[in-house]
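One-letter codes give the sequence; the integers encode the fold. A sample entry reads:
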Amino acid sequence: MKVVKVGLLGLGTVGGGTVNVLKRNSIEISRRSGCEVVVTKACARNITRERICDTDGIQLTTNPNDVINDPDIQIVLELMGGDEPAKSLILSALSQGKHVVTANKALIASHGNELFAAAADNNVTLAYEAAIAGGIPIVKAMREGLSANKIEWLAGIINGTGNFILTEMRDKGSAFADVLKEAQELGYAEADPEYDVEGIDAAHKLCILASLAFGMPLNFEKVYTEGISTITPLDVTYAEELGYRIKHLGVARKSDAGVEMRVHPTLIPEKRLIANVDGVMNAVVVKGDAVGSTLYYGPGAGAEATASSVIADIVDICRQLDVPSDKTVPSLGFISDQLQEIALLPIEDVTTAFYLRLSVEDKPGVMAGITTILAENGISIEAMLQKEPKHGTTAQVILLTNSVVEKGLIAALKGIESLDSIKEPAIRIRVESLQ
């Protein structure tokens, strides 16, 4: 059986998990790939530290070029993360005719167009299943399993940290800051949690998913991103009363007007399967014109869950080692010269329904003023809650609107917030039915 030698850049959680799964399941992997896959060399910052994997038989180095420049290594695994030196190392490996597998979503989202072109120029593969949603094989599903479909939209819970925080806020009634601290203590959130709680990590993943769905170049800068740090237990509770749950959702949708890509807190009907994805789990719903809605669910992170996706890419590469790159599955699922530039909609031109929470003075005529302004902007009310004040004279009015172009809602809120009876800026959260 042919031996395929693999080099690792990064021997942390995912790298260690990959080594463990490759060794434990070596027979099954060989039966599927037709090759004996062997990790022969690995680069780590500290080669003496304790590892989660057995490194016997693996030559360790602190110099990544020892891996890249090894002529016997056919596949390089980039599992170090970050922009540089990861990008330069990948380009160097590709230029030497080596296949590359990466879990680096930020790098793919920001530089994927350049990297995929370099892979094609050198007749090799750059694979990235592990870059999105950990162990969920969503890239393969969209690139191959759904290739008969015109994708209409997709929506995903694609950051486990944010999902854990919102789940705990709902289950325990805790404030955001308290749950974030708990997530950090449990190791779910980084010391600097910005990428997770402000939606940047999810935006990287959504950018890639949108390109897979609609056959367009990657365009991370156009993803609208909004975090969850302003979500309060009050809004979580009121959403539940209305039959919804708040999730930090990535949404990509294509219409005649163009493509929208957005990450933000979202009310989802509680009966939807994705509304019941809790804790650190991830899920993606994809709507195709032929198949309808399909749901992909599983762990979005973790050593062996992510390793599952890394090794799936290794198996795919082994199966097509002697196949020219123009005859393999395209990086984004569409033949490279068939990728199309598509108009990308700014958030103010996107149409959604809204949850509004207004702090109002508890006196007659307040609702009349609010509904008049909404009607003048073509906005109707689908549902309403009114919470009488327990202390003082400020009541809470919660409204669900019909679908409206966002700039129309912004204009309406400007008028509403100018009323003397409105005591605080309105809280607004988008609503998605996902049908």
